[in-house]
Write a structure and sequence with these properties.
It holds the Pfam family Redoxin. It comes from Microbacter margulisiae. The protein is of the alpha+beta class. It has a single domain, classed as Glutaredoxin, CATH 3.40.30. 25% of the residues lie in helices and 29% in strands. It has four helices and eleven strands. The chain is globular and about 40 Å long.
Length: 166
Amino acid sequence: MATVLFGGNPTPLAGKEVKVGDKAPDFSVVAKDLSEKHLSDFDGKIKILSIYPSIDTSVCATQNRKFNEAASSLKDDVVILSISMDLPFAQGRFCAAEGLEKVITLSDHRLADFGLKYGFLIEPLRLLARGTVVVDKDNVVRYVEYVHEVTTEPNYEAALSVAKSL
């Protein structure tokens, strides 16, 4: 079982850690309109999965702003899926208030299906750890970052560079 630091405290992650070269597991999450969404709904696209604990924290807000801004420099075949345990209403409120229209917010609150299949679930807190996963058009994982200290930002440039190279 992998661990990350959350405010300096070692915290175990539940689920199966994904690695570069793995077939990306399909997962079930909730969209802002409360419909069920799956990774497979984005087949044929390059997918940047931006994972974070809570939209109501400054680092998570920054992560969403930065990926939303970066989306304008990406090709049309790239989508940014912003995934947390937040309720879809909170994600929608934040994006509306911030004018973020390029990230697709998805909530893992119902089943923790994404968190468990990708190894990002901080089970004791029922939050997702921070990280980024890039999945190519054939649903192969091409980049993975589990941010070691959850309260710090991911390496945006590394993930974006991989996505742009695909």
